Amino acid sequence: THCISSAASDVYKRQADGREAWTALQGQEVDLVLTDVEMPVMDGLELVRLLRQEPRLANVPVMIVSSREGEQDRLLGLEAGADYYLDKGSFSDARLLAAVHDLIGPA
Questions:
Q1: Torsion over CA of 74, 97, 6 and 32, rounded to 10 degrees?
Q2: Handedness of CA 20, 26, 31, 37 (dihedral sign)
Q3: CB 81 within 8 Å of CB 54
Q4: Distances from the Cα of 40 to the Cαs of 67, 79, 100, 104, in angstroms?
Q5: Strand 2-4 relative to strand 32-35: parallel, antiparallel, unpaired?
Q6: How many CB atoms neighbour CB 86 within 10 A?
Q7: Is the pLDDT of residue 45 over 90?
Q8: Residues 87, 42, 45, CA angle at the centre, nearest 5°?
Q9: Cβ 53 vs Cβ 81: under 8 Å
């Protein structure tokens, strides 16, 4: 899980699993959360659900970048509350930056 600053080029913090990400986000101001679905301890879908339930973080844009490429997987991510779902099969730097721009504006 990555949290990106408003500069959109600085990674704020990287966490090894969803629980660590959730803990790190407590008391932090972030402009965007990038997460995978498949993580140990707490998966990305649960992290997104927790973010959406926390009033202070509920409006932070969340992007899932996952190896799960099926339409059902994408729908599960969006239903959990993600704002954007990017599968790794179609991943490129340009697509990632375009999605970040769509979610938080230009750097």
A1: 10
A2: positive
A3: no
A4: 15, 21, 25, 28
A5: antiparallel
A6: 20
A7: yes
A8: 40
A9: no
Complete DSSP assignment for 49-100: HHHHHSTTTTTS-EEEEES--SHHHHHHHHHHT-SEEEEGGG--HHHHHHHH
The distance in angstroms from the start CA to the end CA of the chain is 20
Residue 96 φ/ψ, nearest 5 degrees? -60, -50
DSSP code of residue 106: -
Structure-model confidence comparison of residues 12 and 50, the more confident one = 50
For residue 67 the two structure tokens come to 């190896």
For 43-57, 60-74, 83-97, which range has the lowest pLDDT when averaged over its residues?
A: 83-97
More confident residue, 45 or 69: 45
**CA 59 to CA 103: how far, in whole Å?**
11
| pLDDT at residue 79 is higher than 90 | yes
- The stretch 90-98 carries a mean pLDDT of 81
